[in-house]
Specification:
about 190 residues, 4-stranded antiparallel sheet, alpha+beta, Aminopeptidase, single chain
Length: about 190
């Protein structure tokens, strides 16, 4: 039976593979892989595994995930200390990109301190896992008295934008490179 459950350490490699696969980086140069994992995976599963959930198949193998930083201030401090130097070690260009990525969430930290990343293996997409993962994280964060959550996707990724809209997200800001969207928990009950 397909289900959603909390992330466990045994899911680490599978989650990292899904991240690389969905970023179209499975066969990319090692520096590119390191950067993608650094920015969009490793912080969350290493520093905040309690805020991460996986979709699993009948054999309890992760086929998708939603990984979250609950508090932007904590995320930024830890990321600057531990992960930003790793980006700098990859290249100065990656260091600048990582700093800019920090800003994409910082703009909305007072209203939406929690941000997340979600990916699902292609074979399991369009089967409801994405909405289940969003719902699971929403309930988890509401139980921790957070008022909402946000994310940034590609400005031209219409499939993702439609998915988030279907799940109640509103657009906060659109630039040439990204669209920030948020789910306001308080607005859901209004």
């Amino acid at each position: 039976m397909d289900a959603i459950r909390p992330y466990a350490q045994r899911d680490r490699e599978r989650v990292r593979q899904i991240c690389l696969k969905n970023a179209d980086c499975l066969y990319a140069p090692e520096d590119t892989k390191k950067y993608i994992l650094l920015m969009y995976c490793d912080y969350y599963i290493e520093q905040e595994p309690e805020n991460c959930f996986v979709a699993v198949d009948d054999n309890d193998n992760a086929v998708g995930y939603i990984i979250c930083a609950q508090d932007y201030e904590k995320y930024e401090k830890t990321f600057r200390e531990k992960y930003l130097p790793q980006a700098d070690a990859i290249s100065s260009k990656r260091f600048v990109e990582a700093r800019l990525d920090l800003l994409s969430h910082a703009m909305f930290k007072s209203l939406y301190p929690a941000h997340f990343h979600i990916d699902i293996d292609e074979a399991y997409q369009r089967k409801g896992f994405g909405s289940l993962l969003i719902s699971t994280l929403r309930m988890h964060l509401k139980a921790r008295d957070l008022g909402g959550m946000m994310m940034v996707c590609g400005a031209d990724n219409q499939q993702a934008i439609n998915f988030y809209k279907k799940n109640g997200f509103k657009t906060l800001l659109t630039t040439k490179v990204g669209r920030a969207m948020a789910l306001d928990f308080d607005a859901e009950s209004a």
